[in-house]
Amino acid sequence: MPKRLGVRIRTGLYIVLLLFLVFVGFFVWYETNTTEIVFRCCINSIVEVKATTETIGESFGSAVLLSENGHFVTNAHVVSYEKFGEYVLFENVQI
């Protein structure tokens, strides 16, 4: 193999390696910034939920507010409980 061809192959490999590292660096930077942006947009809509009833007691959990008029999403076990095989909603739910 001529010496000049070996230098070209090595230079080509360095260029490919450099492009790969730039791609990986961009991907890591993009993922970090995207996650941070989503977190900053959503942090103010996450709330604590407290549900109470006189017979059972209280339940705590978290919820995400969906709209300004009070609609929120949470897990069913936060706002309901099982009594004699049926699920019953807690009497009071506070955010």
Walk me through this protein's architecture.
It contains two helices and six strands. It has 95 residues and is α+β, with helices and mostly antiparallel strands. The protein has a domain at 45-94. The strands form two sheets. The chain has a four-stranded antiparallel beta sheet with strand order 3-2-1-6. A hairpin with a 6-residue loop joins strand 2 (57-65) and strand 3. The radius of gyration is 28 Å and the shape is rod-shaped. The mean pLDDT is 82.
Radius of gyration: 28 Å
Strand composition percent: 25-35%
Element-level helix/strand string: HEEEHEEE
Morphology call: rod-shaped
Number of separate helices: 2
State the secondary-structure class.
alpha+beta
Write the layout of secondary structure elements.
Elements: H1 3-42, E1 46-53, E2 57-65, E3 72-73, H2 76-79, E4 80-83, E5 86-89, E6 92-94
Antiparallel strand pairs: 1-2, 1-6, 2-3, 4-5
Keywords:
single chain; 95 residues; alpha+beta; four-stranded antiparallel beta sheet; two-stranded antiparallel ribbon; 2 helices; 6 strands; 46% helix; 32% strand; rod-shaped
Concise synopsis of the structure shown:
The protein has 95 residues and is an alpha+beta fold. It contains 2 helices and 6 strands. The longest helix has 40 residues, at 3-42.
